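Note to self: keep these together.
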Amino acid sequence: MENPLLLLPQLSISASKDKAYYKVMKVATKEEPHKASKTGAKQKRNRLSLLLQKPEFHEGDHLGKPGNLTKPSSVSPEEAEKWGESFDKLLSEKAGLDAFTKFLKTEFSEENIEFWIACEDYKNSKSAHELLPKAKTIFETFIQKDAPKEVNLDFHTREATSQSMEQPVRSTFDAAQSAVCRLMEQDSYPRFLRSAAYRGLLKGRAAGRGPPRRRSRSFGGSDFQAVRPGLAGW
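Structure:
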């Protein structure tokens, strides 16, 4: 019969291994919710990235690919001068949209123009059955609390948009889009016109001609389709 005293070291080693195992499991369990949260946010960012990269998302003469922006040398001074006439004129031209997007990236506020573009695409969906998945992606990416690219909306606009998510229609994001557009027009657009990048595009303008004349106005929900026709579905 074995001496009980000889078994004590083995029992001690086994107990130590069990203790270490449960300690590792406890840490792993605590980390799981955090990992799941990070995974969810990453998936949302990936969906948005895929959305902005799809070729059909940038069809026509009105949209360019963010990240592949127009170089100053490809824009004539006359074309750039027109962008100073009004904000809708800037957004209605591919090169203008690209240049403005590049400017917003330098201010770390590109989520505003990305939201505007997503709303334009949403309203021009080819069929009604596309609205729900698109609306969900836009809402989760730009509007819900702590969204990866949350835009600045007042409480009432955010609440009204949230309620309309129960049964999305083509006008679901009109109020939010209009609010973000006004914010860009009143805040970012004037800074864009004063920026060194924009002034550089205006060089070469005929001598004696004054600075570009602005015709400022705010967009309404119905204005966007007239300005940016022809967007394809996601």
